[in-house]
């Protein structure tokens, strides 16, 4: 009771003061924190995925507006910010480095390496995405230097291999990251969209702090092998697209269409026929939202947080209203019975269509 009362008092204080007037200690009290695995990397319970500021989901906002959103996220307690060399490419890191410069030492910056930007994209136009991979030691070292420069920092807190390179043994990648950690250029490392076998092999050489993969009510494949392995090994899990590329916010209906510049236009799950069936999940989520008096996105994020205490979702948004809504999900509690009902319902619902275009799905491991 005393702890709850203290929390209320802190929130009341925040109501009278600007977040920028609060010390870092007070900011931390306004957002729950978690640890990523045995690495004990302390971060906010929700991070901010920053890709959408420069890629995949137009319309984009100006850099000045994006910086305001990023800094507000920090003022509201977010300490984990996720970017990648390939986003833009490179422009996303530049934006994030500028936004976080005033409080660099108080946040965890996660970025990624592993795409060979010299090999071009899988399609022309705004949705063209890199398809070439390179995780040779020399490529990793070149990538880390570029990221450090763009981010305006001397170290990367969490450095992911963005996609596993089949041409380079994962043990060699882990060894290179171990050297970078020894040199102080990288503090922790992780993998993205890697298989259970690759995770185990990498972790045996240089312990992983986190694994990043898509995971949500909309895409649950990590539950089969990845999540059990992460629990066993003591590795954190950072789900991207935790709101199913915005489908779980409830903003789309059966009439929704997506411009060619929007990445969702290339995803089979969002095609008109598939979307009509997949909206059954959204309809169920909306019913839960009414029952809990919370927006659908908060239910979806709260459900994710309940799956594993080492989970830290990174929803992305360009809108301040959505940011505040997402962060408030840490205050939504789902009972044991509610979680059981959600799981039973999800098991009955069929989500149809692939979650990536074929060229991108080929780059992931199962």
TrEMBL record:
Q: Which organism is it from?
A: Winslowiella toletana
Against PANTHER family, the record matches this protein to: AFLATOXIN B1 ALDEHYDE REDUCTASE, ALDO-KETO REDUCTASE
Q: Keywords for this entry?
A: Oxidoreductase
Residue limits of the NADP-dependent oxidoreductase domain? 46-344
The protein's name is Aryl-alcohol dehydrogenase-like predicted oxidoreductase
- Keyword DNA repair in annotation: no
Supply the CDD domains for this chain.
AKR_AKR13C1_2
Q: Which ranges does the record mark as transmembrane? A: none
> Which branch of life, at top level?
Bacteria
